[in-house]
From TrEMBL:
GO MF term set: electron transfer activity; heme binding; metal ion binding
Main location: membrane
Membrane spanning stretches: 232-250
Cofactor entry: heme c
Keywords: Heme, Iron, Membrane, Metal-binding, Signal, Transmembrane, Transmembrane helix
Signal peptide positions on this chain: 1-26
Keyword Flavoprotein recorded: no
Protein's organism: Roseomonas indoligenes
Residues annotated as domain Cytochrome c: 51-222
UniProt-listed InterPro entries: Cyt_c-like_dom, Cyt_c-like_dom_sf, Cyt_c1
Binding note for cofactor: Binds 1 heme c group covalently per subunit.
Subcellular location(s) per record: Membrane
Protein name, as recorded: Cytochrome c1
Pfam families linked: Cytochrom_C1
Amino acid sequence: MRRYATTLKAAALAAALALAPAGAWAQGHDEIHLPDTKFSFEGVFGTFDRASAQRGFQVYKEVCSACHAMRHLSYRHLRGIGFNEAQVAALASQFQVQDGPNDNGEMFERPARASDHFRRPFPNDAAARAANNGALPPDLTVMVKAREGGADYLHALLIGYEEPPPGVTVANGMHYNKYFPGHQIAMPPPLNSEGQVTYADGTKATVDQMSQDVSTFLAWAAEPELEQRRSMGVRMIIYLAILGGLVFAVKKKIWARLHQTEPAP
């Protein structure tokens, strides 16, 4: 029983470390200052830059989707970043998804529909680990919410790859990243050259631009209702302010009448 309890504690500790935000890993290391990217969706009245989010989806589709899934999104959700019904259907049809069984009891592949979830790059976690030297690429759907620093952290991580400073030894199979806690990361730089993606709108695809765009897309994916929620919050504040003013005015009027009807001493 004691051995079993020790095993449970070890498993719980491993799970806690795996789920901890990036900032928790910074403890014990030098303090990391993330660059402030000034995303358009920051602040109370911030909104998503639809053009940037669409370019970010292109970066995800052409680069990130080779390893990372986004299983909590369906292709129909892309209407939220400005794609119309025909564009969503065309984008979805570029992917093959597994379906079935058919009349013969066999699984088969077909072009994705707008209602389908984003296609996974690997059929299961075991296949994903086998293709990545034992590491499991995390799902990116809510990655912005799962990491301290959010979109600023993801943007910094993508542009933070560089040669290690003198005296720093990078372990075999690791890469130096000045914004990653501990500065050694197993993931090779996914965005490593200008023009790696050819944007449909003609925007120059620098590493920094691609990093900002895919961070914008992932921020939208994590909170697609962000703008509606903020809009509702502003309306509620205005409503409560007006209601409070009316209640105060009614209160003053009622008490004024009571003071007028009080008998003289």
